[in-house]
Amino acid sequence: DDCIFTNVNIETEFGNEIKTKCRVPIMTGALGSTFIAAKYWPSFAVGAALAGFPIVVGENVVGVDKKSELKNGKILKAPELERRIEYFQRYYDGYGAIIIQMNVEDTRNGVAEYLIEKYGNDIIIELKWGQGAKDIGGEIQVKSLEYAQFLRDRGYI
Fold this sequence. Notes:
- This protein has helices at about 35-50, 80-90, 105-110, 110-120, 145-155; strands spanning about 10-15, 20, 30, 55, 70, 75, 100, 125.
- By secondary structure, it is of the alpha/beta class.
- The strands form three sheets. The protein has a four-stranded parallel beta sheet with strand order 3-4-7-8.
- The model has no long low-confidence stretch (mean pLDDT about 90).
């Protein structure tokens, strides 16, 4: 019998010059700077890499990370972003991709240049313009004046 699910091929690819192969035609939504996204990132990233589909790191991950380091307004160190990329890359086997979404603040802080220098073609950059509609839950929690001042100093309103 040839009509069994293991004989089905739903692979796809995207990209013009550099092709990104996927085992299944799905991808995640952006998992950004929220504490929930950070907490559950390992499960999402490992699952996406093993299943072979793209996963998206959302905006602001570098900017809200207290351990990231900026000098003259440009990122020097981005531990949370690096952690997310490394979880995916550990299980990546040529299918899927890790896509890093950037907003205006990320661009201003030099996240694209940092990613290109450190990861080159091993990642995909998505430039975001504007904000999509969210019912609830897309915001980060700012629970202290100290953290609010930290974010203000990084250019957030």
